[in-house]
Input
Amino acid sequence: MNKQIIDKHKTFWTHGETKQPILSISVRDGSVSWDETAPKNSYELWEDIDARYKRSRFTMKNTKYYGDAFAMDWVNFGPGCLAAMMGSNYVADANTVWFGVGEYFFKDWSNIGDLRLLEDSPMYKMVTNLTRTLAENNDGSYSVGISDLGGNLDILASLRNTQDLLTDLYDDPEIVLQALEIIDEAWMKYYTLLRNIIKESGQIGHTTWLGPWCETTYYPLQSDFAAMISPKDFEKFAIPSLKRISDFLDHSLFHLDGPGQIAFVDQLFSINKIDGIQWVPGDGDAPVSDEKWYPLYKKIQAANKCLVLHGLYSVDDVVKLYDNLSPKGLWLNVWLNTEAEAEELLKRCNWS
Output
């Protein structure tokens, strides 16, 4: 990662003035056979650490990075993998890992005393080992990220069952809050372990599944479960965890997932340690580039919060965002089909 990318990210996190947003453009090399390292089975896809390391290096080597993009691996074991380190069952398929399947850890709350980080669990070992393998073999050509540990209400839903947890918010609110505190402590403990593995390898800073790089501690917080609850319940059950984790970190962002979560934006703005918002429209709604979302984007920027956008695949769409949004604290993740498109985008945005 070059100095310019590092300096731009430092400006991003401090909400500094800038003439350009961070523009991360990636293009897969179409001239190589991507079947070369394709996993032959589920074991190679998820559990074979050596195969995953080799596949990761192949992917980074054969991806072209433009603008402020950089090679990285965020150690993907599915969304919310900490749940499987605390007792959740899971199933891996050809696309992702599903948590909260089969029998739940909490049939009721009688075993809350057993809720803890399980260091002997398969998921704990796999995430730790792949992070260490990537970090210790890093030749400086890529950044190692911290895996998708999950939002704490989401983790609890994987342990309890979503429908039962919704009922528990009203029937047993205090025990829900107790469970969330235990999950928060486990989250911070495991985050620290992964962060130290990366730091002790000599790598400066780290990234995550969201994409931005940070020299110090950061993470994208989330609460997908919250789309099913009211702002009042969000204040009671989500905000305390978000404050605990954001206070623990130097920087954080919030993954705002779908129109059902827009009602929480002002509450998120009230947490000073949440530096910004990543917006995801959700399936079936207008894409992230659509003008429908511009008022939301401008509201986020007016609150002096960073704005992170993924799901950008068109030169014209990116240029429109460039022209309509402030570059301050703006981070755009773009995947294009050809190198010619990448060069065109850089030219049209006067990127430097």
Q: What stands out?
A: The longest helix spans residues 173-200.
